[in-house]
Structure formats: C-alpha cells, structure tokens
Amino acid sequence: MVYEKRFDGRDFDETRPMQAKAGVIKRAVGSGWFKIGKTEAIAAVYGPRDLFPRFLQDPEKGYLRVNYNMMPFSSGSDRVRPGPSRRSKEISAVAERALRPVVDLSEFPNAVVDVFIELPQADAGTRCAGICAASIALADAGIPMRDMVAAIAVGRVEDKLVVDLNYEEDSHEDGVDIPIAMLHNSKEVALLQMDGVISPEMFKEAVEKTKGIIDKVFEVQKQALKERFNVKQDTKQDDAKQE
Amino acid sequence: MYAELKNNIIKLLGEGKRLDGRAPLDYRDIKVEYDATENANGSARVKIGDTEVLAGIKMEVMKPYPDAPDVGSLMVNVELYPMSSPEFESGPPSIDAIELARVTDRCIRESKMLDVKKLCIEPKEKAWMVVIDVCTINEGGNLFDAIPLAALAALKNCRLPAYDGEMIDYHTKTDEKLPLVRNPVSVTVYKYGDNFMLDPTYEEERVYDARLTVGVLEDGNLCSLQKGGDHSVKIDDLFKMIDLAREKADQLRKHLE
Questions:
Q1: What is the CATH classification number for the domain harbouring B193?
Q2: Helices (H) then strands (E): counts for chain A
Q3: Cα(B139)–Cα(B84) distance, rounded to whole angstroms?
Q4: What is the distance between the alpha carbons of residues A193 and A87, in angstroms, rounded to a whole number?
Q5: Residue A239 belongs to some domain of the structure
Q6: Which candidate from B41, B138, B171 shows the least CB-CB separation from A26?
Q7: Which domain, by its residues, includes B18?
Q8: Which of B27, B13, B43 is nearest to B196 (CA)?
Q9: How many CB atoms lie within 10 A of CB A32?
Q10: For chain A, what is the domain count?
Q11: CB–CB of A127/A179 below 8 Å?
Q12: Is residue A23 part of a domain?
C-alpha cells in the first residue's frame, strides 16, 4: 500500500507544532512543559532529597527516579484508571534510562532526584514528550547535566518513513512506531523502542533522519529555558558565536 | 513543629493581617479556564493564587444499580500528584485525597444539581456515569476550595460523547449538556485561635485549628458540611463559619458562569 498523504496533512518529515515552557510548577525544584500537537506533558523535579526505601541508596552517587503517569481523562478513548499499570511502569523505567546518561549525581550520595511526568492530554508520542519535558525540568532544577535529552517518534506507515506519528498513524495496522531519545550534542541514543516490522535499511534511514529532528526539538527546549532565565540573546547570534 | 508560624499567623490575624498582605477573608485571584484539555468530555483548570488543579470528565455507560434501575451515577476521584508538592507521595490514594474527593462528591450529589434520572438511557440496562477526576498541578494551599470549584466547572463544561447504543465514540462530541438543575458551590472556612480565615496558602494551611467546608446552594440553603482539623469548635463559632461561607458563596459562584 502507498501512504500518499498524511492523515493530518503534514509533510512526511514534519513534526507537529511544538511548544515548551520551563518553571510551570512553583512548589517543585524545577519543572517543564512540552506540547507536541495534541500530546502534552508536564514534568516536575524534586530533590536531591532523602531516598527511601533505603536499600536503593548509593553511597557513591544520587539516584535518578522517574515516574510516568497519564491523567485519567488524558486518553482519546476510555478513562485511564489511576495508579501504576504495566505500561506506565515500563515507560517510567525506559524514561529513567533515557535521562541517566546526562545527569551527574555524584555530588548527591544516598539521595534521590525524583522526576514526575504527568500527561494531561495524549495523542501518541507521550513517552517522548515526557522525556522532553523532564529534560527541561532537570535543567530548570539546576541538576548538573552533561547534555540535554530530546526525543521523538519516527516510524513507517505503509511504504513511507514518517516523523512524529500521531494517534491515527501510531494505531495504523501497517505501521511501525520507533520512539527515540538522543543526547543532543553527541547524538548518542538514550532510548530506543520499536514495534512493527521494518527493513534494516529503512530502520537505518529512520535513525539518520532522527538526528535532524532531535536538533529541532532541542531548539524548542533551549528556547524555553532561555525564556525562563530571561536570556535575551536571539538564536541567530548564539549560533554565530558557536561557529 | 510549626508553633512559631502559628503564633505569628494568629498575632497577625488579631491585627486583621496576613503573611502575604491579604485581609483575613480575602481570596487570592481566582481563574477558571474551561475546555482545559481536549480528550475529556468536560474540563476546567482552576487557579487560586499559586494553586492549580485540572478537572476532567469522562462519560461512561454503565448498567444501573439494581436498587435504582432508572438513574445514572456519579464518581469523583482526586489525584494528589507528587509532581505538585514535596509533601505528596506516590502510591495508593492518601486519606487527604479520599477526603477531598468525598467532600467534592457530597456537594455535587446532595445538592441534587445533577438530574440523575435524565442520565438513564434504558431502564435496568444502560445509564450514563459521570466520572470526574481532579488532578493537582501545583499545591499552593486551599485545595478544599479549588478542587470542588474545578469539578463544578468541568460539569458545566461537559458535552456528552456520541453513543450508538453499543459503543461510545469519544472522538465525536455532541451538543448535549449534562442535566444540571441546581447551582451549588463549596466554601471552606478556616479557624485559627479565635480568628477566621479564608483561602489559606499552603504555609497557613499547616497550622489551622479547625476548618469547615460548606456546600451552599444558590438560594442560600446548605447542601453538605464537613468539619476538619484537630480542634473542637464552639457552636457559636460554627454558626459564624457557616454564615461566612454563605456570604462568600456568590463570589465563588460567579466564576462558574
């Protein structure tokens, strides 16, 4: 089958519109908000603080703990029953692994840095949006970081490689969903999952394409942090400086 | 633990003042935003000062209970997310979450604002169930007013999804509103020593002696009550607290129009 035009009319390598903000929850040490299309994620960081249960404590470094949760009314279909599910526990674990490579918690032995990700509204790509929000929140909290983590889903619908699948594409019967999180500077992969059948060639092409998209996501995250800290420099000057 | 804070608050209240400069019976700015999230059948975001909560409704179809075969039903749930306060923890609902949900439920249910008979689709077989979830975003104090207000606003915002007798089509919204026939609000009055206060911040909320949540109907009648706090309250003070709640009810209700 030939996928000629995307359900929502986007180009095949075009993401949905992205928006981000830092510092959206006053009680938290740091927080971030990330919206891509209709999918919306909020993340809050608490800590470093005492870690319980105690057996998780590491005298060498702090522990990063991520909890992902969908609000009960966030789904496009039935109500999501509150409390952890197998799905939310797995996503919490993979999001945790996606963020661990960039945080340096060596200054906080025995402590925990908690990241809570909540989804008020879901339309596919929630784990990626959650990781983007969490990365903003960690930076906002001033947790030492080596890099930012940005994430996006790529995949296949029928014969086409597509970027940032929406719910219709994600649930398409002949489709593949590949959520990828990358470290922005190094482009190392911090999260990778896939479901569906794809040729190795197309998979490689998808990963290569992701790099450019990650840069776009990062720009949105960076802008949010700049606005938070009132950095007036515009992006062009900043890029010129780097060159 | 907070003895000094409490002494300060009471001392200031004696002079008609508060830590943030408000008068004892002043609310912070209240904002109610409708249609706050697209996938819910009705939703509202309520901000009272720094406090922010998000309420969403999912309509479900259920089999009516055998003892009430021709009425629909209501469920209220409150999620105190650890995202919104360092004091909230993950895990099963805390007693605070349960009390907030039950107080909100009681105000809605006992005011009879929902004409539950009109929620019946087919007696003994099918009826609508209104499921309201209120989630905290930032806990800045006075969830006892913010959460019921958000739930009431979401009810007013709700439109039934399309239903063909078998399946709910959540992607298709109809124009049909919920059968709302009364207009209650929930107001909570706090007591510190001999002083009364409204809309405490989370700091003030740590040290109150007693609180009274009052469901007030548009005609001034009461529809629900809940006393909280570890101190007992004189009957005279109780009446004063109810009067205060009734006086403030219209101020909250105007945010629901």
A1: 3.30.230.70
A2: 5, 9
A3: 5
A4: 13
A5: no
A6: B138
A7: 3-256
A8: B13
A9: 33
A10: 1
A11: yes
A12: yes
State both tokens at A48: 């470093």
Q: Do B140 and A120 touch (CB under 8 A)?
A: no
For chain B, state the CA radius of gyration.
19
Query: How many domains in chain B?
Result: 1
**A53: cis peptide before it, omega within 30°?**
yes
Side-chain-side CA neighbours of residue A99 (13 Å): 33
Query: Which residue(s) pair with A121 in the sheet?
Result: A40
pTM of the model: 0.94
CA distance linking residue A67 with residue A47, whole number of Å: 14
Q: What is the DSSP letter of A169?
A: H
Quote the pLDDT of residue B1.
75
For chain A, positions 122-141, list CB contacts with chain B under 8 A.
Answer: 122-123
State how far the Cα of B255 lies from the Cα of A57, in Å rounded to an integer: 48
**What is the spatial order of strands in the sheet that A149-157 belongs to?**
A160-163, A149-157, A175-183, A189-192
Helices and strands per DSSP (H, E), number in chain B: 5, 12
Residue B257, pLDDT score: 84
| Measured distance CA(B104)–CA(B131) in Å, rounded | 12
Is residue A69 within 8 Å of A81, Cβ to Cβ? no
pLDDT for A241 equals 47
Residue B89 CA to residue B3 CA, distance in Å, equals 25
Least CB–CB distance from B135: residue in A67, A71, A114: A71
Closest CA–CA distance from residue A234 to any residue of chain B (Å): 30
Domain presence at residue A64: yes
- At position A160, the amino acid (one-letter code) is K
Please give the average pLDDT of every successive group of 10 residues along chain B, which has 257 residues: 91 94 97 97 98 98 94 97 97 96 98 96 96 98 98 98 94 94 98 96 96 97 97 97 97 94
CA gap B140, B162 in Å, rounded:
37
Q: How many residues does chain B have?
A: 257
